[in-house]
Amino acid sequence: MSADTSSAVDPVEGVSLYDVDNPAPVIEPPRKRTKKTPKSTRTNFELYGWLFMRLSGVVLVVLVLGHLLIQLVLDGGVSKVGFAFVAGRWASPFWQGWDLLMLWLAMLHGANGLRTVINDYAERPKTRFWLKNLLYAATVFTVLLGTLVIFTFDPNIR
Amino acid sequence: MSTTTLEKSAASAESEAPAHLITVTFRVRRFNPEISDQATWQDFQLEIDPKERVLDGLHKIKWDHDGTLTFRRSCAHGICGSDAMRINGKNRLACKTLIKDLNPSKPITVEPIKGLTVLKDLVVDMEPFFQAYRDVMPFLITKGNEPTRERLQTAEDRERFDDTTKCILCAACTSSCPVFWNDGQYFGPAAIVNAHRFIFDSRDEAGEQRLEILNDKDGVWRCRTTFNCTDACPRGIEVTKAIQEVKRALITRRF
Predict the structure, then answer these.
(1) pLDDT single digits (tens) B51-79
(2) Where is the 4Fe-4S ferredoxin-type domain positioned along the sequence (chain B) (predicted)?
């Protein structure tokens, strides 16, 4: 026995908008592969990107956890962080190097991750293009600004 | 006496015959572009032996209840790979899934596989799937003169790619992959499995070419290692492992 929970016929009084000669549009999957799809670029960019994510991830675990420990846990926690604290730390080339490396790795790691997300979810070519451009602009701006600050920091600013 | 035994056997047959049958609800995703642009769920109540397969239930519906139900099946024994569908939210072959393994007290949902265009009911357009398959060149490529006898291979060399020879191209893996759902340009697990089958074949000489194809932006690097493909494969191929082996081959080729 077939017990219908819902009819396949259009709800409008059994009158369907579609028939054999005029079928409904089917739903195409996003970015379908066709004969014209393969456009080999023959670069290793994706390979290096994949490797970079793994290697920078391992280094970032040490850098970020160390950073959080110093800034938020040890020696009075977050309340100690102020201009003087930062100035004291950046007087040493070691901490300058630490922060510089952390800035670059975290920004590139995050940007590459977001690039992957855009590749996965943005369907239209224009959306992909503009989202990626926005991402790259934001990344370059943040990295350059951060680098500038680390190298030109003046503790006697006032 | 003959009459009593007849009566007895008739009575016992009557009481026994339905005893092994149970009532199962099949909740099937229906879509017919000639009637509506919307897909709907339709319930069918079947008296069926729980040791039968989901495909038998679909046959029962098509033959006895509603002849318009459309689905693919060819061999009906798990070899041809025609009847991959989403049963209770998991990609499986309808011909290899027993009803008793599905908790028949609840409705059994049957949907078309995802990420491909649904043409009617459970039938999807497999063309993008086979396009990706063709793009990895799934055939033996060799250089030089053809040998006068068969190309020999040691048992160990054969063992290297044994797992990926089992693929039946049912698309259960590719249509379970979240990356493929969102971006059909990704080759998908099945194409990579079939590239793996030739990349690691000692007789084949175009492994480099195939690795180059899979090194591209829609190749293996888009794999997110979610293991959906390995879970979905009705042949038990370790699909994610095969993809990782291709990645490793690409990295060791570079460094």
Answers:
(1) 999 999 999 999 999 999 999 999 999 99
(2) 157-179
